[in-house]
Design goal:
By secondary structure, the chain is of the alpha/beta class. The protein is about 35% helix and about 25% strand. The chain has helices at about 15-25, 45-55, 75-85; strands spanning about 5-10, 30-40, 60-65, 90. A four-stranded parallel β-sheet has the order 3-2-1-4, with helices on both faces. Helix 2 links the parallel strand 2 (about 30-40) and strand 3. It is globular, with a radius of gyration of 12 Å. The model has no long low-confidence stretch (mean pLDDT about 95).
């Protein structure tokens, strides 16, 4: 099996991120690395994201990164690519389901 890196840029999408991560956890393919790049969300949204990550960390490997300032989804995706270790990359927005 080959590892898949799923790269998720995140900016104040606290209403959707939990459903997004649950949809990943429901996949039958288990060799997943989820990279979430927080693009300088509000403190409330960041705290919520960190709570969700703590609750999901047993489901799959999660790498959490923070951007120093809001640089946009493209820059967040590029940062995710830099740290990804999977043979395949998948880009998923924080309000998407798979």
């Amino acid at each position: 099996m080959k590892k898949i890196s799923i790269i998720i840029p995140y900016f104040d999408r606290h209403r959707y991120i939990e459903d997004c991560l649950i949809s990943i956890a429901r996949q039958s393919y288990r060799l997943l690395e989820v990279i979430i790049i927080n693009d300088s969300s509000s403190p409330t949204s960041t705290a919520y994201l960190q709570t969700i990550i703590a609750n999901m960390k047993d489901q799959f490997e999660i790498i959490y990164l923070e951007q120093p300032s809001n640089l946009g989804a493209g820059a967040a995706r590029n940062r995710g690519v830099e740290v990804a270790t999977g043979e395949y990359l998948n880009f998923l927005d924080s309000d998407d389901l798979i």
